[in-house]
Amino acid sequence: MDVLSNLALGFSVALEPINLLYAFLGVLLGTAIGVLPGLGPVATISILLPVTFTLQPQSAIIMLAGIYYGAAYGGSTTAILVNLPGESSSVVTTIDGYQMARQGKAGLALATAALSSFMAGTIATFIIAFAAPVLAEFALDFGPADYFSLMVFGLVAAVILAHGSVVKAIGMILVGVLLGTMGIDVNSSLPRFTFGVPQFGDGIDFAVIAMGIFGIGETISNLGRTEGEREFVKDYKGLWPSPRDLKAIVKPALRGTFLGAALGILPGGGPVLASFSAYALEKKIAKDPSRFGRGAIEGVASPEAANNSASQTAFIPLLTLGLPASPVMALMVGALMMHGLYAGPQLIAEKPELFWGLVASMWIGNFLLVVLNLPLVGFWARLLTVPYRLLYPSILLICCIGVFSIRNDALDVIVASVFGLVGYVLTRLQCEPAPLLLGFILGPLIEENLRRALLISHGSPSVFVERPISLVFLILTALVVLVLVLPAIRSGREKVFAEEAN
Amino acid sequence: MNRRQAIGLLLGTASAAGFGHVSGAVAAEDPSKYPTQPVRVIVPFAPGGASDFAMRLLQAPMSQALGQQVIIENRTGAAGNVGMDVAGRGAPDGYTVFFGNVGTVSINPTLYPDMSVKPDKAFIPVSNASETPSALICSMKFPPNNVKELIEYVKARPGKVNFASPGSGSVDRLEMELFRKATGLDMNHVPYKGGAGPAVADILGGHVELMFVTLAAAMPHVKANRIKILALSSKERSPILPDVPSVAELGYPELVATSWQGFLVPTGTPRPIVDKLFQAIVKAASDPTVKQRLIDGGSTASASESPEAYKAFIEKETARWTVVVKESGAVPD
Questions:
Q1: Can you give the C-alpha Rg of chain B in angstroms?
Q2: What is the pLDDT of residue A161?
Q3: Which of A6, A242, A425, B96 has the fewest CB atoms within 10 Å, i.e. is most exposed?
Q4: Does residue B152 sit in the same domain as residue B11?
Q5: Are residues B170 and B212 in the same domain?
Q6: What is the pLDDT at residue A246?
């Protein structure tokens, strides 16, 4: 009952007209920057930080939080429409969302993203309200060895992402891992693959690679096609989901929500890992996995639900322990500090109106997002009727602004251009970029946690099987490998026989 | 929200960067009229970190004192070296200011001998701004409750106890090296990256045993009673933590150290401009709100007595940390 009265307090705070206004401003801005690729929540929130000094702390944090999940949400719009992930967490949405758009189902894909996100947002709000402290304690139990095993599991499962050749997918993952090793090594302070360029000291930003490969690469590929091939199906059938579509969305969105909620609590992975894993899960349990990559509605519903619930549960370690799980969360700590407040358990006790107001505003924010975005679906879908010769320079320009804004560095724009060429070549070779990006994210985390776990255990590798959490993930990994390898061997043999028969 | 912030909103920090580039064109203006346009302060770390926090507190009172808007530009990367490089190559006209810290200015030159900018040659120190001591913290699951017990505990288990740090060349790691040298303790180093957060998280979870970390980063967990705090790297006890002994009173005066942040300008900046900036910084650092917010965060405002005093302070710090870095073996060779 305590939770209910607290939630009531939260809603009374969040529904104050001034806070409602800031929540609306936040999600509006968030959606806008989400649509603009590269220009992420980190840049926007850091620009807005000084503006929030003059506000009440709860208004400030409600607005900043709105920007954050608004961006996670808006990022899917461009992913679906022009194959350009507005945020790193919407990379996976490009795979099936863009295919749906090409088949004239852009409206359906956008509505699916909106509804799954809303569903995830609603459930995640209740998870935070009821279980935040317990979940935070669980996140603390994750040591370096456990992270290592979890990440290995994620990387192996990434092979499922590919809908073409498994060998190519493994190749792409390895390229991603290699790219991820760039930068100054944590343990020895030695630079790796930095070519003497100080800006490479922290490696390349994820968004730079994603913008290059998806935004610029796809533009080059499109320009190489003839007008006819480039065109989308203009006959918009089914802007709105039919009852059958809705039925197809619900279960994947639910699975995505809970997977995302679990991964969001853990530092490091967050929404990106959540969306990748949700997609891999859907593909694995689907009756006909070959539909994935060709416009499967589950391929949009599940990852969109996952990234939304993960971006909300990422608040749990911040609010209950004062531990930021991501750069955006670190900014939230900064925003609170500017008001002389410290995130952590004492904050919930000292300023319940702030904590519960934020929790309530999450649900309100998600509701506002749907209200804001569903009417826009038709508008966005019509954007595709803009002739490509007008559309592509805008895409390139927006990519450049977005990439530049990450670190205010022109070098990043050049690097993104290089990855544009890489992306084009990969498309021609029919290698998919999604496994590369996952390798890029997970590779360095695996290395870091492996070395850390071994340092802590004084070099004894048994730590990976002695810790129960780690052991569970290693067993799961072995199972996935088995599941992957068995049919591959079987079908491989069938192929050999088929060729011999020919 | 004023117009500039509105533009910033639309175009990201691109607009803020733009103001900096304008400055080169008017390098020859009369220094006595300074400042006639926005002043760009380069913070070499990400928003939300210790440097960014201090600078954003100082931003408004400094803008007021200068009569011109102060713009913060976060140029992150390579342990702050990217931002320092950008600032070092800025025009010496007072419109490019570097917000350095102990790491970038006094430790990195030894740790990264190949870096393109040498802070002692590239900058004129203006004034320090804030400083925070390090706290010796340990997990609640770790048996020792004070420094004496800690020494006995580690001596009984040489090489078995793990200490964390937010990076091999961080002040916090070097502080631990000083501690080990002073006490003759054998412990195992586990470096983390991404600021103090991940390392502190593993202390909270009990995966590593202890670490030195800036008091600012430890404060929320100390308040929540989730970690033990054994000592502060200060001369005297802190007014906000009267029960925690200082390293000096424990008999280790050589361990007294702080993480500091302060302002530097590119070499060649005219003296009248340096003086004007100095006065603005002193005024901003004595603002009561700024002082209180810094104290709440475990830091203190500490403007220098003069630009010369700050120069002498930096030289002393650099000399000290150079020795510690070399002895700790943190130098990549």
A1: 20
A2: 64
A3: A242
A4: no
A5: yes
A6: 84
B175 shares its domain with B189: yes
Asked if B79 and A267 come within 8 Å (Cβ–Cβ), the reply is no
Q: A46 vs B8: CB contact, 8 Å cut-off?
A: no
Chain A residues with beta carbon closer than 8 angstroms to that of B48: 46, 324, 327, 330-334
- Between CA B244 and CA B224 the distance in angstroms is 15
User: Is B283 within the bounds of a domain?
Assistant: yes
Phi/psi at A55 (nearest 5 deg)? Answer: -85, 165
Do residues B121 and B141 both lie within one domain? Answer: no
- Looking at the fold, whether B115 and B228 belong to one and the same domain comes out as no
Query: Residue B280's domain spans which residues?
Result: 3-131+259-328
Least Cα separation, residue B23 to chain A (angstroms):
17
Is the domain of B25 the same as that of B79?
yes
B124-150 exposure pattern, b = at least 16 Cβ within 10 A, e = fewer: bbbbbbbbbbbbbbbbeebebeebeeb
**A487 inside 8 A of chain B by CB:** no
pLDDT band at A108 (very low <50, low <70, confident <90, very high): confident
Structure tokens at A224: 């190489």
Residue A327 contacts B where some CB pair is shorter than 8 Å: yes
Same domain flag for B8 and B94: yes
Measured between beta carbons, the chain B residues lying within 8 angstroms of A343 are: 220
Say if B78 is an interface residue toward chain A (CB within 8 Å).
yes
Report whether pLDDT(A218) > 90: no
The CA distances from residue A26 to A56, A207, A352, A402, B169, in Å, are 15, 22, 21, 19, 38
B68, B9 contact by CB (below 8 A): no
Do B156 and B72 lie in one domain? The reply is no
A:395-434 residues touching chain B, CB 8 A cutoff? 401-402, 404-405, 407-409
